[in-house]
Amino acid sequence: MVSIGVWINAFLTLCILSFLYKDNPFFRFAESLFAGMSLGYYIGLANQQTLMPNLFMPLFRDFSGSVVLLIPMALGILLYFRYIPRIAWMARLALAVYIGYYIGVMFLQKLHGEVLPQSRDTILQLRGIAGIDVLWNAVFIAGVISVLLYFYFSAEHKGVLGKVSRVGIWFLMISFGASFGYTIMARISLLMGRFSFLVNDWIRPLMGAS
Amino acid sequence: MRRTIPLVITFLIGLYPIFAFFVPHGSISGANDWLDSALVIVAAFALPLGTVNVVMTNTTKLKRKSRGWQYSIVLLAGLTVMAFYGLVGGTGVHPSFQWMFVNMVSPLQATMFALLSFYVASAAYRAFRARNVEATILLIAAIIVMMGRIPFGDMMTRGMMTPLSEWIMSIPNAAAQRGIIIGAALGAASMSIRIILGIETTYLGTGKD
Q: Total structural domains in chain B?
């Protein structure tokens, strides 16, 4: 017995795959359903994981003890003032607090969490290790430096800088190729998962095979 | 004034986490932690803001009976039902919400991404033709990484593909990624300074008032 969930799952899978033939109403239906449900899913998630545990539940349980939570709530509501033209500018106040704080956090994260540790980890050992490791460490250091120089646009890329930045492009090409290969294999793995579902969870039970 | 006040707020609030990082006093980091948890709530309020735009766009399409208006009904119905069960579930997950996620959202998402493999493959054919050194390097790296992920690749090359693929991932790929990360992080940090100092103001919108 195939459950209704499996039938719906199979139908929607086939609707999306029908695009391989050409654009058609079944695909458009599944696409629109996906867009709507995904948005609804994230609303549900924001409610379950953020608003209920961090705002509404503490306010319902102990209002006077959680009164300070009315500040972020008010800031959140201020965001919607953009729909009232006369006071739309007030939405900027909430935006200013939100953007300001996360920009400050991002500044620290980028410098302290990315630039410094990544630079430190690039200072690799070139002596006292096995010969082949010396070579790979040298390749790694050359790769990082040449890619960084490729992104240096304050001087024209000619002469030594031009040659080094060309090596940087080769490293970037290897990286893009690797990322591409990785992405393709991940997508093919998803496709195999969908076909496996259609055959093993839908068609085989339907035909009476276990 | 309507732009100056938000700019002053951005400046003061933007400097606070940096100040708190360098002055790790209890009261200062306490206020910073509170800001951190409070602004998660503001972010959650911002999500329905995008939803309002989606609803407005699709209801306008419906009212005007624009081309494909029927699909707007599907989108709005999906959004309403999913959001409804997401909201009535409270802090827990409503069984219907979970059921719709497992049987509808998840397979739709997986198939949509799986579908892209066909189109990425055809785009790759056009992009990867070995016309110059760079395109050839990209092509070879992609083939090695793809072959290194499947048993067939090792079978064809007597086990050479997996180590070669791993070497590409851990040496030249990691080196290029590190260069990109450092460059992008420096760019993001400089953008942060521009926003904190009020040089970059596009996030406030283009209105003059």
A: 1
